[in-house]
Design brief:
The complex is a heterodimer of chains A (about 110) and B (about 110).
Chain A (H helix, E strand, L loop, with lengths): L8 E5 L4 E6 L9 E6 L6 E6 L4 E2 L4 E4 L5 E6 L8 E10 L4 E3 L5 E6 L1
Chain B lengths: L3 E4 L2 E4 L5 E7 L5 E7 L5 E7 L6 E2 L7 E3 L5 E6 L8 E8 L9 E2 L3 E5 L1
Parallel strand pairs in B: 2-11
Antiparallel strand pairs in B: 1-3, 3-8, 4-5, 4-9, 5-6, 7-8, 9-10, 9-11
């Protein structure tokens, strides 16, 4: 199964951009790259996903390396509300279907 | 905008007791999932369902059973609770295969087994 590697924690200043890296060197050609975040005492929240091309939505941007072995989640202007654990996830195929496997994630701390 | 609703939000059980956690979604999603999250760790998949009347095992299914009698509901049962099942349980749903679309999560059920 393809795995992801993320830094345990990162810090950012409020209103500055944040780049959250993720390495997935064993990704297969059909694996989607998903990002979720989890605020304290809440369930995970979908942020963005992509396959090959860079993606943008109202929450963030996803930059995918040309060889797909790494990706970066970009928060354009961090706010205090963006302090959360961010999970980079690849599809995991098992005998019965396509699941998402959550790793340890990156804890983002935002300083005022 | 209810989305995914989990009940109860908190529960304390004694070892050996049984209980059922209820998950309800109002988005007409086919896929539903139960995860557990232990302190300081990511989520692990317990069971999932790809449609009404179907269930399947995930990564950590032992000690749990599930049922999907109605499309909008997914029940997680603990027949004989053990302290190792103390955790936060999250339910999720998605309109399509998880690989291509987002999962929508509830706010969790915090379960303590004494």
């Amino acid at each position: 199964d393809a795995k992801t590697t993320q830094p345990n924690s990162m810090e950012s200043n409020e209103e500055e951009p944040v780049h959250l890296p993720c390495n997935h060197s064993t990704i297969s050609g059909t694996d989607y790259i998903h990002w979720y975040r989890q605020l304290p005492s809440q369930g995970p929240e979908y942020v963005i996903h992509g396959l090959t091309s860079n993606v943008n939505n109202r929450m963030a941007s996803l930059a995918i390396a040309e060889d797909r072995k790494s990706s970066t989640l970009i928060l354009h202007r961090a706010t205090l509300r963006d302090a959360a654990v961010y999970y980079c996830i690849l599809r995991v195929v098992n005998n019965a279907g396509n699941m998402l496997t959550f790793g340890g994630g990156t804890r983002l701390m935002v300083k005022p | 905008n209810a989305g995914v609703t989990q009940t109860p939000k908190f529960r304390v059980l004694k070892t050996g007791q049984s209980m059922t956690l209820l998950c309800a979604q109002d988005m007409n999603h086919e896929y539903m999932y139960w995860y557990r999250q232990d302190p300081g760790m990511g989520l692990r998949l317990i069971h999932y369902s790809v449609g009404e009347g179907t269930t399947a095992k995930g990564e950590v299914p032992d000690g749990y059973n599930v049922s999907r009698l109605k499309k909008q509901n997914f029940l997680l049962g603990l027949e004989s609770a053990a302290p190792s099942q103390t955790s936060v349980y999250f339910c999720a749903s998605s309109y399509t295969d998880a690989a291509a679309g987002p999962q929508h999560f509830g706010d969790g059920t915090r379960l303590s087994i004494l």
